[in-house]
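How it folds
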Amino acid sequence: MHQSHVHRRFRLGILFHGNKVWLSELWGFIFIALLLSSLLTITFLIMSNELRIHKLDRKIASMKVDTVTISYSLEEWRERHRLANILTEFAGNRVHPETIDMLTHAVYKSSKQFGYDPVLLLAVIHVESFFNPEAYGKYKSGALSGALGLMQLKPETAMRMAKALGMTITREEMMRPEVNMVLGVAYLTQLITRFKSFKLALLAYNQGPATVLQSLSNREPLSINYYSKVLKSYYRLKKIAEETGKNSKF
């Protein structure tokens, strides 16, 4: 009886700080600890992989942006190189290389900003100032007309366009090629919108909107001499552009 009672009461256990923990329960604790450790390890690996993937995605996106930027820079360089070749061929030694470089930059930027054919802008500049950024306009009598710079803008017109574009400029600043170009092209764009005709806009740019409107109102013939000059320059420049394009290595 005594041995049987002892046998029934005998179970394998381990004592921890006065508390008896049975071996079967200990294995359960160990299993849970291993399971939690495995889950933590897997979670850590997943998070690490997600971070690596995120970093790779950012690098790929950055590379794509860099590729687009390089592509645009290369396109700009090619276009400016093309315009420089056209100007050099057209004007020869009459225009300084530094002026050509400045012109190609200003014309390219304005053509992109307002959506014009850069060769057309070159034609307008040729007729207006013969590519001279410091040109002062004169009437046939020889008296100064007040028109200034590449696009031969009068100060009042330049200031009005500058205000419309949110720019604050001085008389000296309106002579800067890039500023004169932007204001002149903006004025031409305004005239095209007003007259709904590129031809009439060009005539208004040269003769003044009031003169053109008066001629139209009185059904009087318009002098198209200026328009013809611009077209003549444009076709000459366009022909050089086509020949330059055929011979270009880029």
About this structure: Residues 1-17 have pLDDT under 50 and may be disordered. Residues 2-58 form one domain. The chain has two domains: 2-58, 78-247. The longest helix spans residues 23-91.
